[in-house]
Specification:
alpha/beta; Rossmann fold; four-stranded parallel β-sheet; four-stranded antiparallel β-sheet; 15 strands; about 15% strand
């Protein structure tokens, strides 16, 4: 398996620290609002990464944190005239609900920053004692000049980070690139007691502590959106290197940006969408299909036309399964389609190329639709479609969706109706043929004429 490793700027063979085991940390949400569709791309991708490792037989420990204390949370609490705990609690539940709606598996561990405060203070104190951090008026900063490797992950140099549009000027810092480990609380703000007074931790330190607590000093994969490479992941790595001289993770993976109709998503442009907004209009699997139809490192453009295409693609999978009366656990896999599985694995082993993996699903779907193939072969194609689709997170509610399939008598009646329609088409009586098709469509039954023959399906309600 080859994975693109940001720390090396290239694809590398994946070799786990412990054979047969994979330890993954992916940055979770800061819970001050509903998460947006850009966040959803990261959450879905790392869900698929975790699922694929499990499919390949690895024992996976997957950790995703929740940042439940942050300036944005405090600001939102002030706006809503409530406590930061209430804001965090409200949006943690929303995050869990929306993640479940998107078919994302719960992580092995999902720690909150406020749960590890003693460990955070201990880590910061260790950095101060080692000379990699310093305190000024109750604030503690990491001294980037004390670490020669600083900037190795992002490629940014400390001398390039002069105060300006992207670097906030802070006269307390020794160097503009130095970052906050502990922030002194202002009057009325939440705080924890520390050796440096009342305050709260910096974001970068929270993730170092939570990842190391559950995965160890060095683990296999750390990931998130591409916007987290700098400063967040760079600053996490810096703290780990300063503490132990060891990297925090061996592989750093990041998904690409998401734009909306060619523009960067922004509230000022009125093109800002929460995942919850999109879920009101589109099925979770269509959203998942939309993201996975592009390679995870590529930028992706969200627009209504593409998401509608994704909806139709998912609908087509279910229609094919319904067309042959697919029933879970009624077909025994005979390995006759092992080539499809091999092609799927080859695609995913090439830096999790889900776009190529989905192409394998389309090939299987065409086989299901091909009435010239033996039924047993079409059933095997359906079985493999479901098996491989589930690796990507599809077909999680297959039984409930397929239970709308009609009983055997109704199927026989449909075959009879289609036989009469076929006779009309043979006589070139297009008026009767079209009327049968339109009348069935009014009943929610879709007829499709394909080179392989006529197929029918009940339009899915998912």
């Amino acid at each position: 398996m080859q994975l693109y490793n940001q720390s090396k700027r290239k694809k590398e063979e994946f070799i786990p620290i412990t054979p047969g085991q994979v330890k993954i940390y992916a940055c979770g949400p800061t819970v001050y609002n509903y998460f947006h569709i850009g966040n959803a791309r990261a959450f879905i991708f790392f869900d698929v990464l975790r699922r694929y490792f499990e499919y390949r037989g690895y024992d996976v420990t997957y950790v995703q944190n929740i940042t439940d204390i942050d300036d944005k949370i405090i600001a939102q609490a002030i706006e809503e005239q409530t406590s930061f705990e209430d804001i965090a609690s409200k949006y943690i539940q929303a995050f869990l609900d929306d993640s479940q709606a998107l078919g994302i598996k719960p992580p092995t561990h999902q720690p909150k920053a406020t749960e590890v405060m003693p460990e955070i203070i201990e880590l910061i104190n260790a950095l101060v004692e080692k000379g990699n951090a310093y305190e000024v008026n109750g604030d503690v900063y990491f001294d980037t000049a004390s670490l020669p490797e600083y900037g190795s992950l992002s490629g940014k140099k400390t001398e390039d980070q002069m105060p300006g549009a992207r670097v906030e000027e802070n006269l307390q810092k020794r160097n503009p690139a130095d970052f906050t480990l502990w922030k002194r609380s202002k009057p009325g703000e939440p705080f924890w007691q520390s050796p440096w007074g009342e305050g709260r931790p910096g974001w970068h330190t929270e993730c170092v502590v939570m990842s190391r607590k559950y995965l160890g000093e060095t683990f296999d994969i750390h990931g998130g959106g591409i916007d987290l490479i700098f400063p967040h992941h760079e600053n996490e790595l810096a703290q780990a290197l300063a503490l132990t001289g060891k990297p925090l993770a061996n592989y750093w993976m990041h998904n690409g940006f998401l734009n909306v109709e060619g523009e960067k998503m922004s509230k000022s442009l009125k093109n800002f969408f929460n995942a919850r907004d999109i879920l009101e209009h589109h099925s979770p699997e269509a959203i998942r299909f939309f993201f996975l139809s592009k390679h995870y490192r590529s930028p992706i453009d969200f627009n209504r036309e593409i998401i509608e295409e994704s909806e139709r693609a998912v609908e087509n999978f279910y229609s094919s399964l319904k067309s042959i009366g697919f029933v879970e656990n009624s077909i025994v896999e005979d390995n006759s389609l092992s080539q499809a599985e091999q092609d799927f694995i080859a695609a995913m082993d090439d830096d999790i190329n889900s776009a190529k993996a989905i192409a394998v699903l389309f090939d299987l779907n065409r086989q299901i639709r091909n009435e010239h193939l033996p039924r047993t072969q079409r059933e095997q194609a359906a079985l493999m479609l479901v098996k491989l689709g589930r690796v990507l997170g599809f077909f999680q509610n297959l039984e409930s969706i397929l239970q709308d399939s009609v009983p055997d008598l109704s199927k026989q009646l449909m075959e009879l109706i289609l036989a009469y329609r076929a006779q009309a088409r043979a006589k070139k009586d297009w008026a009767v043929s079209d009327r049968i098709r339109d009348d069935l469509a009014a009943l929610g039954i879709e007829i499709k004429d394909t080179p392989e023959g006529c197929t029918w399906s009940i339009k899915s309600k998912h």
